[in-house]
């Protein structure tokens, strides 16, 4: 597997978009909040030089099998409050030592392969080199499937002193109006 890191990617043939869609398609019906970017949003992120792209290609076939994004410019991340981090972690924020992982996508047939671990290892190395921290948003469905613990285990192989901390949560409530004639 070949790891590639770059600041900008043009997805002319749709290879990156296809991987992203395949990896996260099931979240469309498993999470209330939209977790998949629209095509135009995805293209903007891929071209945004404030956001680093991490990719893994199968060395034998050249196929893109994993893709992730990470940035320490929290203003580049829609719906994330830079002010939260400025208040909670003033020194890290002022020195741009807080990284946000936008997504980590692995092709369904490569899940369980070393691809995700390769991405996490490199992202951890980048964050660790600056003595920083990284943040990732995991929906409740994936949280129940222990994604946060899985990320921690992979990252801890490279950063043994790593500590996981839940920063926040958002809960969606539904209010139904039963049919009055049914009573």
Helix percentage range? 25-40%
* Structure class: alpha+beta
How do the strands of the widest beta sheet line up side by side?
Answer: 1-2-3-4-5
Over all CA atoms, what is the radius of gyration?
18 Å
Q: Summarize model confidence as the mean pLDDT.
A: 84
Q: What is the tally of beta strands?
A: 5
Q: How would a textbook summarize the main sheet?
A: 5 strands, mixed
Number of domains: 1
Shape: globular
CATH topology grouping: Aminopeptidase
In words, what does this structure look like?
Its EC number is 2.3.1.-. Keywords: Acyltransferase, Transferase. InterPro entries: Acyl_CoA_acyltransferase, GNAT_dom. This is GNAT family N-acetyltransferase. It is an enzyme of class 2 (transferase). The chain has 183 residues and is an alpha+beta fold. The protein has one domain: Gcn5-related N-acetyltransferase (GNAT) (Aminopeptidase). It is built from seven helices and five strands; from the N terminus they run βααββααβαβαα. The protein has helices at 15-24, 39-47, 82-88, 90-94, 115-129, 140-144, 147-156, and strands at residues 2-6, 52-57, 64-71, 98-106, 133-136. Strands 1-2-3-4-5 form a five-stranded mixed β-sheet. Strand 4, helix 5 and strand 5 (133-136) form a beta-alpha-beta unit. It is globular, with a radius of gyration of 18 Å. 22% of the residues are buried.
């Amino acid at each position: 597997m070949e790891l590639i890191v770059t600041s900008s990617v043009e997805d002319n043939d749709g290879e990156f978009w296809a991987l992203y869609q395949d990896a996260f398609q099931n979240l469309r019906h498993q999470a209330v909040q939209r977790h998949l970017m629209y095509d135009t949003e995805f293209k903007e992120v891929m071209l945004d030089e404030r956001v680093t792209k991490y990719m893994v290609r199968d060395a034998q076939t050249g196929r893109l099998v994993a893709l992730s994004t990470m940035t320490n410019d929290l203003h580049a991340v829609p719906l994330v409050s830079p002010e939260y981090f400025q208040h909670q972690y003033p020194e890290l924020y002022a020195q741009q030592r807080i990284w946000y992982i936008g997504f980590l996508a692995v092709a369904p047939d490569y899940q369980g392969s070393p691809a995700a671990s390769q991405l996490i290892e490199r992202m951890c190395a980048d964050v660790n080199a600056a003595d920083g921290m990284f943040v990732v948003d995991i929906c409740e469905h994936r949280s129940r499937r222990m994604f946060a613990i899985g990320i921690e285990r992979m990252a801890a192989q490279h950063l043994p002193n790593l500590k996981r901390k839940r920063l926040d949560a958002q809960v969606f409530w539904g209010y139904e109006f039963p049919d009055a004639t049914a009573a």
